[in-house]
Amino acid sequence: MPAISEDPASISAGAAAEGVPDPVERLVQQARDGDEAATRELMERLYPLVLKIVRSHLPKRAAEEDLCQVIFVRVFRGLKQYSGAAPLEHWVSRIAVNVCLNQIESERIRPEVRYADLSEAQQKVVEALAANAPELPKESDSPAREVLEQLLAKLGPQDRLVITLLHLEERSLAEIHAMTGWNTTLIKVRAFRARQKLKGYYQKLLQQSHERN
Fold first, then answer.
1. What percent of the chain has pLDDT over 90?
2. Which residue has the higher pLDDT, 18 or 100?
3. Fold of 112-213
4. Which of 19, 105, 165, 168 is the most buried (most CB within 10 A)?
5. Phi-psi region of 183 (alpha: psi -120 to 50; beta: other; left: phi over 0)
6. pLDDT in tens, 137-161
7. Among 115, 168, 165, which residue's Cα sits nearest to residue 142?
8. Measured between alpha carbons, how far is 110 from 97 in angstroms, rounded to an integer?
9. CA distance 186 to 192
10. What is the mean pLDDT of the segment spanning 121-129?
11. What is the residue extent of each domain of the chain?
């Protein structure tokens, strides 16, 4: 699977800020020089960003803290190659997204989603969705979101990522470009194809519900 570019130079001028803020630049330089206090402070600054990405794209069998640690190992190993040509957060976001994508891909299992395996509440959601055809649900604790998560798990890592960023997190095309390096056309095409796949999985669930009834 092709990785998302982590080279800051590949980020377009429109996606990058004018430069790294001085305090961050100082911390980066000190961390490069082996300053443990600066490394800890830099990690504290970046941790909320990394945790948010991990929680949004966490593979089912991976612990979020373990994945965060893997990401920070990658970040600090590559810190000497960070040029400052783009905001540090963009560079770290790409590393975090890559780690999550690679972990999802390593699991490889695309579980079968069967109507019979859904809870009664989830089955009612499928039937309601069939009648109303609403937008993708965003409530993290709702039966509708649970059904959606099961369907998303059937998608490949990049398809799952674009649906999550574009529709569930409602990020702009510019934000997705900054996180992934994909151009606008690629984002739109990948999102369209991913939605078509989700629609196919959903239609299969509907067919199973009709057969049971």
1. 8
2. 100
3. Arc Repressor Mutant, subunit A (1.10.10)
4. 165
5. beta
6. 555 557 666 777 777 777 788 888 8
7. 168
8. 20
9. 10
10. 61
11. 1-109, 112-213
Report yes or no: 54 and 71 within 8 Å, Cβ to Cβ: yes
Which residue in the block uniquely carries the two structure tokens 């796949």? 197
167 is written with which tokens? 């529709």
The SS3 of residue 110 is coil
Query: What does the block give as tokens for 192?
Result: 């369209």
Name the amino acid, one letter, at 165. L
Hey, CA dihedral for 208, 132, 166, 186, is it positive or negative? positive
Q: How far is CA 53 from CA 94, 97, 205, in A?
A: 10, 7, 29
Question: What CA–CA distance (Å, rounded) separates 107 from 193?
Answer: 22
Radius of gyration of the chain (CA): 20
The secondary structure of 116-165 as a DSSP string is GGS-HHHHHHHHHHHHH--PPP--TTSHHHHHHHHHHTTS-HHHHHHHII
The fold adopted by the segment(s) 1-109 is: Rna Polymerase Sigma Factor; Chain: A (1.10.1740)
Per the listing, tokens 């937008």 go with 135
Structure confidence by residue, pLDDT tens digits, 20-63: 446 888 888 888 888 888 888 999 999 999 998 888 876 655 67
Residue whose pair of structure tokens reads 């490394």 in the numeric block: 39
Q: Copy the structure tokens of residue 24.
A: 């961050």
